[in-house]
Amino acid sequence: MSDVGNDAAGSGWARLLVVLACRCYRAVLLTLAVVAALPLVAGWGSYVVSSDSMRPSLAVGDVVLARPTRPDHEVRVGRVYVFEDPADDGRLLVHRIVERRDDGSFTTAGDANDVTDLTPLGGSGIRAQAILLAPYVGLPVHWARTGQWVRLALWLLLSSAAFALAGVRLDDERPSRRGRRRAAVATVVAVGAVAAGTSGAAGAAFTARTTASGW
Fold it and tell me: Which pairs with CB-CB distance under 8 Å and at least 24 residues apart come from 152-155?
């Protein structure tokens, strides 16, 4: 009897830990999704990082929250900005401004790069100043944009399962049908919130020479 009791107790603790872990995952994911989408309300922009060239400062799938700059904005050397790549029309970069040049343009660089960007940045190309970061929450959007459907499908499957388990009552063995439906809806809402809030993809690399300057 004692062995049976111990097995039951162990199973109960394992189920408790799984449910709690799933609830933590659900809370973190939904919180980050809201943070990534919230800038829309204030007129800010959210940009999914699509380049891995800036590790470890930023990772692919991180969402950079950036405040749009006005024409009279004073560009601050050492800060991170979202701007139109002067060397590639239509591409956005998240780089640090490291120098104000004599002609009024700016030198930019990525933290992972040993040299600065070759093409100077004009002030008119600056779109927003990076303020906050929501880590990893943009990965599903990045996978969808880059055609990584297997990863996206696997993430949706695992997240749906985690959300369903998070809805399990600790005095019950299985989630109800209503709980499973809520899990699926919550997963879709989380992805949709990030997708709706992100303004676009941006390559990102922060310059090592000015990492001490902060955001």
Answer: none
The pLDDT assigned to 208 comes to: 32
pTM (predicted TM-score): 0.74
d(CA 215, CA 210): 10
Gyration radius (Cα) of the chain, Å: 22
Angle at Cα 40 formed by Cα 34 and Cα 44, nearest 5°? 110
- What Å distances lie between residue 10 and 5, 23, 73, 96, 174, CA to CA? 9, 20, 60, 52, 18
Helix, strand, coil share (%) of the chain residues, nearest 5: 45, 25, 35
B/e letters for 119-129, b = 16+ CB within 10 Å, e = fewer, are ebbeeebbbbb
The amino acid at 168: V
Output the six-digit token pair for 188: 């879709």
Q: Cα dist. 104→95, 113, 120, 122, 123 in Å?
A: 18, 23, 10, 7, 8
